Amino acid sequence: MQKKLFEFGDLFWVPEFYHAFLRRFMGALYKIFGYHKLWLPELNAFVEKSGGKVLDPCAGSGYVDALLIKEMQQRDIKFYLSDFMIHKNPEFREHINSLGDPRIHYLEQSIDVLMDNPDFRCPKIFINAFHHFDDEQVAQICKLNLSHGDDILVLEYCDNAFVSYLSMLFGPLIAMILLPFITERRQLLITAVFTYLIPIVPVMLLWDGFVSNLRCYSHRSLKHIVYNAGFSSAEVKTTFRRSWLYPAGVTSHHIVAPPGAKKSNDSDDEV
Ligand SMILES: C[S@@+](CC[C@H](N)C(=O)[O-])C[C@H]1O[C@@H](n2cnc3c(N)ncnc32)[C@H](O)[C@@H]1O
Known about the structure:
By secondary structure, the chain is α/β, with parallel strands linked by helices. Helices cover 43% and strands 13% of the residues. The protein has helices at residues 16-33, 40-49, 63-71, 90-97, 135-146, 162-182, 185-197, 200-215, 219-228, and strands spanning 53-56, 78-81, 104-106, 124-127, 152-156, 235-241, 250-256.
């Protein structure tokens, strides 16, 4: 069962500068450590099986989606991005849509992935986002997608393992070094004050990192939830990969819709 712990990054009342800094910091980590590339074999296979069209409904800054799509050779693919809280940082959407890559588009609508969104039925990818949902919410996501034949790909860089906790310890230090280079100018002063003078941001980052590890789903726990959600014939394929630069490793869980479920591209529903 998933631990019932909160992350500051999920709380609406947490000041905006923290959310913005967290998203930019995560983006910088992908660029420095390149661990997103470890997901490519599973992502390529997933996109191919999906017929090219996928939705990342918890895209945040969308930065990692843009990095991933840059690495993908296929031309005939489309990543749709959305996020529950994107109204707080519309600049992320504007940035993605200004890239000029027809393979990636940030939607105007912010989709709540826990609700039924008939207009947005297609296979979904969750990048470092799935552990934010508790068991009941994961079951709900499975019901809303697997029953329509839409597979789910869960990509995580956190893990409930010793090396992952060790790597999270470096997070606040790296954040303090990167802050001047990644923070938007209008939020630089307040972020710097609450990082260097009153070090609340590093403590919040450390907490969020540790809680992410604790909340990450194992293959077994995910299989259990999928089964209990009524999908006894759905498959969960889990892969773990690590690199020298990122020894903590990354995980991919491909939740395959049960055979016989109605494919969303069999209907008129379109993203
Ligand atoms: C840790 S962030 C991951 C962002 C991005 N995928 C990345 O790797 O940088 C998780 C995101 O999930 C979004 N989110 C949380 N609950 C959601 C929901 N019910 N529907 C849609 N998005 C949600 C949050 O707004 C947040 O941006």
